[in-house]
Amino acid sequence: MLFVLIALWAIAAILWLSDRRSDINRRLGAVAFCGGAGALAAVLDLSWIPAAAEAGMSASNRQLLYYVQAASSLLSYYGLPYFFLLFALAYHRIRMPAAMYRLVQWLLVIPALLCLLLTPPYNELYPITFTIVVWWAVPFILFGTALILMKRQPYAALSRRHWIVCSAVLPPVLFSMVMNYVLPSTGMLRMWVYNTWFVGLGATVFVVGLFTYGFMGVRVLIDRRRFDTTYRAVTSGTAILNHAIKNDAAKMRLFSEKMKTYAIETNQAELLADIETVLSASKHMQDMVGRVHQRTEDLMLRPQREPLADVVLRTVKPIEALHKRVTFYLALEEGWSGMIDSAQIGEALGNLVVNALEAMKGEGDLRITLTEQKRELVIEVRDSGPGMDKNQIAKAFEPFYTTKAGSGANFGLGLPYAFQVMRKHKGALHVMSRPGHGTSVLMTFPKKGIQAARIETPAKKGGEAHVVD
């Protein structure tokens, strides 16, 4: 049981520290913490209190340990089904007014409070009245499980993360439901000793998920901090480099212009050609460093309310006109506006579109969609190019990484820039790809984060489909 205690409280700490503002993470962390509290009660009962008695600990101190055991046990039995249902309600949000949602959270705690106040007090053999608690704890867990399983993710990458959550959370919780409530209500007591195996399975899935596709956004947070550190280092370096080269390039141009005037006056054609080469090189050098610095400087947003569909069209239409051999498919759900920096979003989206066109080598199908999800608005750019393997996807957000060998104008800053733009908008950037199956990039905007609002236009409602052959 000590392993269960350490594993569950470690998971709770990771979930709570990863994103303190997330209701989903806070509640799932509470589920893990309640499970760990039950393990603590078991460790106290089986090991620590007997060891304390053998060591000669005073009766008052042993009584204190007993109170900790009782509190931990009650927290586990009453807290686990309650917080699990709250987690399910946050994970698969049912449409209801915010005031009603808050009221439901308070109403759900009533069964636990009534049992705590009206049933016999805690003792080691019957910590709770199982024959009563089973009638609300089991429905809480079963309804929460159904809610979680009914959640649907339209995108493959997010769907994988959903099933990792299901695999890590549901088996231990359902097994604990049987061992902690169902069987004890029939007289089979202390069945919780068998929970270790399923908790170990859930912890294993959690760790594997953490380092593959992510778990409740935790891997995204780890990556985000790594990318932020790299991006800040690149920003500082390019700022210094840009300043130094700009000054030296200005000196080169000044003296080269003087030599150019002298070469013209003395009619030295060969010297004039050499000076023109130096001038051209200094200008190219300054332009290159300036472009890198422009992409890596810290972003300052100027948010205004803008229709997202209009931003997509303004960005894509000029690019579309230049690529006649690419079939553009646009499906944009109109009417959604948000507080965004349209210039930065347009630039980020343009980078994704250009990346897709370069991957397809100017031929193929490019699909750009704007869709509404329950809590997010999603812009997807999907190409029919060669796709990327897992190693390429893992490096895609690193500054200066590029798969376009030989392209002197490509610095590998398009995706890192788009990543930063989405982060500034409290959103996220997801890349999904397989070799031979193209690449899909999702720009996800949380509705709350951009204060999204829906305005139905009388001329056209719903989505627009635009196809160019």
Automatic annotation (TrEMBL):
Residues 240-449 form the Histidine kinase domain. It catalyses: ATP + protein L-histidine = ADP + protein N-phospho-L-histidine. The keyword Nucleotide-binding applies. Keywords: ATP-binding, Kinase, Membrane, Nucleotide-binding, Transferase, Transmembrane, Transmembrane helix, Two-component regulatory system. InterPro entries: HATPase_C_sf, HATPase_dom, His_kinase_dom, Sig_transdc_His_kin-like_C. Its EC number is 2.7.13.3. This is histidine kinase.
